[in-house]
Amino acid sequence: MVKHEQEESPNRPDNTAFTQQRLPAWQPILSAGIVIPGFVLIGLAFIGVGVGLFITSRDVQVLELDYTGAVATDPCYKCSDPSIKDCKCTMEFHLDTLFRGPVFIYYGLTNYFQNQRKYGISKDDNQLYGDLDTFKSPASECSPYDYDSKSKPIVPCGALANSMFNDTFKLYRMVNGSKKEVPLNGKGIAWWTDQNVKYRNPSGTPLINAFNGTVKPINWPKAAYELDTTDVYNNGFINQDFLVWMRRAALPDFRKLYRRITKDEYQAGLPAGNYSLEISYNYHVLSFKGKKKLVLSNVSWMGGKNDFLGIAYLVVGSLCVFMSIVMLIVYAKFKFPEED
């Protein structure tokens, strides 16, 4: 019988070192002479970075002013009653030394879960992009903040927009017994992509015409087209404060950028002295056991104050050094004679 050779499969890989896995390979041998010094070097590097981060973080200045008004002795206690409208309160504070600039002002909220799923999706992205069709028929995700009691569409709709933070602040410096207002800069506090890509005002002028037949969110004191009538680039859906609020926080205790102090004689920071903070108290948080605070802070090359990052590096570095010592002791005690 004649034996026919089997034909080669067309899918057979080429007979090369790469396709046939015949390339030379190298596998490191992790001996004690390599592992122990490696752990020491890694540990020392982490400790060095951790010390630098910790010292830098400790150098950042932070001043927190709680104005919730939960206690009768608090300056804003009277304003914490929801039945009182258009309430204002004043807090005094003193700076012993120069508060180095640029100074950033944040508002902080606690026990506020912006990351809750139903709350986070309660908005209409097409509406916020300026689509006029959605002004008359908001997305179902906005319910129950899509229409008012008279069946008029709410713009912007949804729980996220409806709960926008609306406390306002004015800062005064006490000079020779008189108040001198500190200029606060509210430009550029939102993400560039939010203002220029994600959110858009409807086309056409004046802006108020696009909102005909709609109503403002229930908890808003004024409509979206009235957020800043002095600046067309800071009005409507591209208002800086609105954009900052709409970018949700990941944790229940958070703070968001409110203003910066960078103008005139305050470019170097806030001089030492007495200051007065005037608060327009509109946002009530005691109903869900929350707290409010105003935060003044400067930044370093690594950002704001964050001791955790430096401590984490120090802990990891210390563990590496400790483990290298343990491995050295074990190696010295149990090594085999032929390894001498």
Task: Give a description of the structure.
Helices cover 25% and strands 18% of the residues. The protein is α+β, with helices and mostly antiparallel strands and 340 residues long. The strands form three sheets. It has a four-stranded antiparallel β-sheet with strand order 1-10-4-7, covered by helices on one side. A hairpin with a 2-residue loop joins strand 5 and strand 6 (178-181). Helix 1 (32-58) runs antiparallel to helix 8.
Notable characteristics:
alpha+beta, 10 strands, four-stranded antiparallel beta sheet
Following the backbone from N to C, one meets helices and strands in this order, namely: HEEEEHHHHEEHHEEEEH
The helix count comes to: 8
Q: Total strand count, please?
A: 10
How far the N terminus sits from the C terminus, by CA atoms, comes to 67 Å
Our estimate of the beta-strand percent is 15-25%
Subcellular location: Membrane
InterPro entries: CDC50/LEM3_fam (IPR005045)
Pfam families: CDC50
Protein name: Cell cycle control protein
At a glance:
This protein is of the alpha+beta class. It is 25% helix and 18% strand.
Can you lay out the helices and strands and say which pair or pack?
Layout: H1 32-58, E1 62-66, E2 87-95, E3 99-100, E4 103-110, H2 117-120, H3 125-128, H4 133-136, H5 159-162, E5 168-175, E6 178-181, H6 192-198, H7 240-246, E7 254-261, E8 269-270, E9 273-281, E10 291-297, H8 307-334
Antiparallel strand pairs: 1-10, 2-9, 3-8, 4-7, 4-10, 5-6, 5-9
Helix pairs in contact: 1-8
